[in-house]
């Protein structure tokens, strides 16, 4: 891949943090897909026997998953981590907590729920201190997937579980095509293929990762409604290659025209490809002689 092209998809974390911070009050009403994926992930926990003492909700948003995990694991501590401070403030209102903490205080204060403002790529928690790392539709905002997965592996205890979801390459394909027809700038983040995520999990040290994919299609009356929902959840274009300044009326009119090619049954679709993954951190032991670990991809039963 050309280095210049790759750089254009680099996430401006300052912009992303501000966008999510501004969306803290509107997020829950618009996060329909996030709720569906969260419920699917929770149902998958029914198949797992685990009693973690400490759970990390990495990229917690407004805390819906943190609250659900507290109810499910009544004896566990939950650490809600997000890089947007207003999201943590909303989490505190929604879930209740011991307040904003830093570094290792989250694990030694004795309270059941804690808030940590930090980036997934640099988690300020001790190594081998977490029994379950949970992350719902958050790691797509990382610039270095390997670094994020290595951090998850580092904070997990041996035999601890990682469960996550993220977006795949077909996400918002209609919007990407419509905007690419009129501008040379990046309009949508680059999302990583499931197989590449599996390879990164193996590089991070996870044993026999399991991944599968599901596609969702949300429908809208018009393009403005698509953009309004993305704004409400804080999903602004934060790539370095984005167009700078405000878009004029001509841009929006052309976007509407280009997007119309996808209208079906009177509605405009917005496709989301969701990748689910889980893996255990193995007990510390020597690797295979050839350095190879298996990756399993499961077809989804319809």
UniProtKB/TrEMBL annotation:
Identify the EC number(s). 2.1.1.197
Q: Does the keyword Cell membrane apply?
A: no
Residues forming the Methyltransferase type domain are: 56-164
Recorded catalytic activity of this chain's protein: malonyl-[ACP] + S-adenosyl-L-methionine = malonyl-[ACP] methyl ester + S-adenosyl-L-homocysteine
Q: In which pathway does it act?
A: Cofactor biosynthesis; biotin biosynthesis
InterPro entries in the record, alphabetically?
BioC, Malonyl-ACP_OMT, Methyltransf_11, SAM-dependent_MTases_sf
Provide this UniProt record's keywords sorted from A to Z. Answer: Biotin biosynthesis, Methyltransferase, S-adenosyl-L-methionine, Transferase
Question: Which Pfam families does the protein's record reference?
Answer: Methyltransf_11
Please give the Gene Ontology molecular function terms for this protein: carboxyl-O-methyltransferase activity; malonyl-CoA methyltransferase activity; S-adenosylmethionine-dependent methyltransferase activity
Which enzyme type, at the first EC level? Answer: transferase
Q: Which GO terms describe its biological process?
A: biotin biosynthetic process; methylation
- Extract the coiled-coil ranges from the record: none
For this entry, the protein name equals malonyl-[acyl-carrier protein] O-methyltransferase
């Amino acid at each position: 891949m050309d280095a210049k092209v790759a750089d254009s998809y680099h996430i401006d974390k300052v912009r992303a943090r501000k966008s999510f911070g501004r969306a803290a009050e509107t997020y829950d009403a618009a996060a329909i897909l996030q709720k569906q994926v969260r419920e699917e992930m929770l149902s998958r926990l029914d198949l797992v026997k685990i009693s973690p003492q400490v759970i990390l909700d990495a990229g917690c948003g407004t805390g819906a998953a943190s609250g659900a995990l507290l109810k499910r694991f009544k004896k566990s501590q939950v650490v809600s981590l997000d890089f947007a401070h207003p999201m943590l403030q909303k989490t505190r209102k929604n879930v209740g907590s011991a307040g904003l903490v830093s570094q290792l205080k989250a694990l030694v204060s004795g309270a059941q729920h804690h808030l940590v403002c930090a980036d997934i790529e640099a988690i300020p928690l001790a190594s081998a201190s977490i029994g379950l790392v949970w992350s719902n539709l958050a790691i797509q905002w990382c610039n270095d997937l390997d670094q994020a997965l290595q951090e998850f592996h580092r904070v997990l205890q041996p035999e601890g579980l990682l469960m996550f979801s993220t977006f795949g390459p077909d996400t918002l394909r209609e919007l990407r095509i419509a905007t690419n027809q009129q501008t040379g700038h990046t309009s949508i983040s680059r999302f990583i293929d499931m197989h590449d995520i599996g390879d990164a999990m193996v590089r991070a040290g996870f044993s026999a990762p399991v991944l599968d994919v599901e596609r969702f299609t949300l429908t809208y009356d018009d393009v403005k409604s698509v953009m309004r929902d993305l704004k409400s959840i804080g999903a602004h274009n934060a790539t370095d290659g984005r167009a700078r300044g405000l878009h004029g009326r001509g841009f929006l009119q052309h976007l509407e025209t280009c997007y119309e090619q996808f209208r079906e049954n009177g509605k405009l679709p917005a496709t989301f490809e969701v990748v689910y993954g889980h893996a255990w951190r193995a007990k510390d032991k020597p690797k295979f002689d050839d350095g190879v670990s298996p990756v399993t991809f499961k077809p989804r039963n319809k």
